[in-house]
C-alpha cells in the first residue's frame, strides 16, 4: 500500500517548564494517533488526528503538538476505517508510516521549542569521543 503526504495542520502547541533543577532529566517521546477519518472519498485521502509529546521526566517540562496529518492512499480506505473503528488500531503498514512521520515532524517542531525553554534536545546528539588507544605522534 502506498501512502503519500498531502498536508499537515497544527491545532495546538503547548509547552511549559518548571524552574527546578537537581535530578537527571529523562526525555520520553510519545506519538499518538487519536483519530482517523475519511477526508475525501474521491481523492482517497485520510486524516489522522495526532498528538506528539516530549515529556521531560520527572515532570520537569512538556512540549505537546496536536493536529491532523493528511495522507493519500491507494489502499482500501474502508478496511483501514473498519480496523480503526473496531480496535483503535491501524494496519501495521499504515501505522508505521504515520508514526514515523509523527517522529520526524514532532522532533523538527520540538527542537527549537526545547532550545527556547533551555531544555535538553529531544534526541541524542552524536558526540565524538577521544580515543583511549590513540598513539601520540612524536617528531
Question: What can you tell me about this protein's structure?
Answer:
The protein is α+β, with helices and mostly antiparallel strands. The chain has a domain at 3-18 and 37-116. The chain is 26% helix and 40% strand. Strand 3 (45-57) and strand 4 form a beta hairpin. It is extended, with a radius of gyration of 20 Å. It starts with a strand and ends in a 23-residue tail after the last helix.
Key phrases:
extended, single chain, 139 residues, 2 helices, alpha+beta, four-stranded antiparallel beta sheet
Summed up, what is this model?
The chain has two helices and four strands, in the order ββββαα.
Task: Compile the SSE list and pairings.
Layout: E1 3-17, E2 26-40, E3 45-57, E4 61-73, H1 77-87, H2 92-116
Antiparallel strand pairs: 1-4, 2-3, 3-4
Amino acid at each position: 500500500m502506498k501512502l503519500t503526504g498531502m498536508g499537515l495542520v497544527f491545532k495546538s502547541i503547548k509547552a511549559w517548564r518548571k524552574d527546578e533543577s537537581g535530578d537527571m532529566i529523562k526525555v520520553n517521546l510519545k506519538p499518538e494517533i487519536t483519530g482517523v477519518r475519511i477526508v475525501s472519498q474521491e481523492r482517497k485521502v485520510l486524516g489522522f488526528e495526532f498528538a506528539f509529546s516530549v515529556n521531560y521526566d520527572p515532570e520537569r517540562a512538556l512540549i505537546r503538538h496536536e493536529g491532523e496529518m493528511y495522507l493519500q492512499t491507494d489502499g482500501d480506505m474502508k478496511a483501514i476505517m473498519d480496523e480503526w473503528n473496531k480496535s483503535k488500531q491501524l494496519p501495521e503498514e499504515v501505522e508505521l508510516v504515520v508514526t514515523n512521520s509523527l517522529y520526524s515532524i514532532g522532533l523538527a517542531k520540538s527542537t527549537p521549542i526545547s532550545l527556547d525553554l533551555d531544555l535538553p534536545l529531544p534526541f541524542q546528539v552524536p558526540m565524538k569521543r577521544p580515543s583511549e588507544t590513540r598513539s601520540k605522534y612524536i617528531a
